[in-house]
Amino acid sequence: MNFKKATILFLSLIFGLVLTFTNASASNSKPRLVHPITGQAPMNTYVVTKTTDSGDNNKPGTGTLRRAILDANANPGFDAIVFDIPGSGVQTITPPLPMTWLLDEAGVMIDGTQSDDRVEIDASKTSGNYTLYITGDNNVIKGLTFTGNPNAAAMGIYGSHNNVIVGNFIGTNAAGNNAKPNFAGILLNNSHNNQIGGTEGVSPGGACTGDCNLISGNGLHGIVLDNGSRNTRVIGNFIGTNKTGNGILPNKDGGILVANSPNTVIGGTSPQERNVISGNTVGGIELALADTRDTLVQGNFIGTNSAGTAALGGGTGVYGQLNTHDNVIDGNVISGLGKFGILIFLNAHSFEIKNNRIGIAADSDANLGNGQKGIELQSNNNYIHHNRVANNGSDGIRVKSGNNNRISANEVFNNRTFGINLGKDAFSPNDGGDGDGGPNGLQNFPTLNAAEHDGATLTIKGSLNSRPNARFILEFFQNPACDNAFGNSVGEAKTFLGTIEVTTNGSGNANFTVPLGGAPNSGVVTATATDSQNNTSELSYCRAITAPPPTVEPPTKPELLSPGNAQSAGNPPTLDWAPSQNVSIYKVIIREGSNTGPKVHFGRTAQDSYVPPALARGKTYYWRVIACNDVKCVRSVIFSFRIP
To answer: CA–CA separation, 613 vs 574, rounded Å?
Structure first.
């Protein structure tokens, strides 16, 4: 390589380095500047160096956030905006007018984590517009603090898709310990495939770190998904708490509202995907309107601290209303709330509610009861199964109205009133033939006649009276003791034991005997019945678990001794025989003239000898002994004797 070419190459390298340092954050220790989903690096990086803002999109001012957004919108490709503002402490940008919209379809990444200090956008001087309005796609909003918007959401996402919102504080100060409310937090309208929160750097059970958005202290909802905003993921956020997750900064309405927006995922199977949604005044998660369907609410802590071990409160944990349907509530801790754990009402229907811990801690049965019912249904066609529901201020599970609600394999205990309640706040007794109606058809519950434990197997015997020639699924539960709610000895359902299927006869009756291995050998048993339309009954009256009666063998056959056969005897005679085994009582029969002759004496004794009254002389008598117990009676042979 000649000198001229080497010089040109060297100068080119130097020029490239100058451009790199001009368009990037001043610090090399910052996180790598790439899109968190696609891994794409920005084509252009714009640096915000000032907190001032002119409010004028025609004269935005060099180094301002407004200028950076305008430049990113104007240039093609995925771009980044970072912050390198002189000074220390929270850097606060206070726009006098609404901020420029994000319009670039290729996306813009506004990354506050590239700054040495937290960057706050205080919208207290704007009016009626979103602090940040996003209509372009593929944007990333990361590590900023949004406060003080009096009349609108901090972030409005309209017809905008594939955006990622991570690591922001929305409605709190930069320390995350005091509210600085916006009217609402984040609003999505007709926007698809967006992600709010993430898992990178999230600390399950600890404070809100990394991708966790802290969305608290706002005047209405923390997050609103509206008007067909489908396929949204909400993961790893704190909504309604402070940064530590141990105190509350409530959103004054609800934590999350999903309205007419399908295929939403709130939470997930991993601890990092868990949202902590607590303290919100009206409730945690609201699902509403007919097109809110196929939503999954999974693995969240609702009403508790971030560790799931203490109550932080709030209104109702999860409520479905206004025709929403076919949604799943799975594996959440829903505890410590002031009202219902879960409420499905106002024509919402077809929910699956499973594997939740309602009224207890995440890691134990510690009492974190909700103020009212654990689950209340005013709705049809729901499936409630494998939940653990305890310590609530009223019923564990109540079907206030609606039919075809299957309640299966739940463990329900220590609730203030009933474990399962149909209809009014009172006990609903069985009726003959089950002809009455009401919530879940007021399905009759089984009658338990015995619950005997032999040390290995619990055998439950009973019957069901309901509609004739119909199939039913019976489920059985053990409890330490029987409740006495409203003066009836009905139980709850602490430990699920098992299930059988029965079919009633033409009279509506079915008897059953069910052996259950590995069941507890103390306490009481209860049961439910579910018909073929999935209407589940209340829990039955209790039946105490007892040991079976001892096994008794039949007596051994008595062996007659004296008087010997065909011998003479004194008068009265002394009748003697060898003792039998397993005997309770002996019966002695004496006949005159033959072994089928008239009976002249019948006596009972517990001894192995017997003296009857004096008999007529000069006659022959025939006698035998019958040994009896509760199982059987066994007869001896017949001997004769003569009274001279």
So the answer is: 10
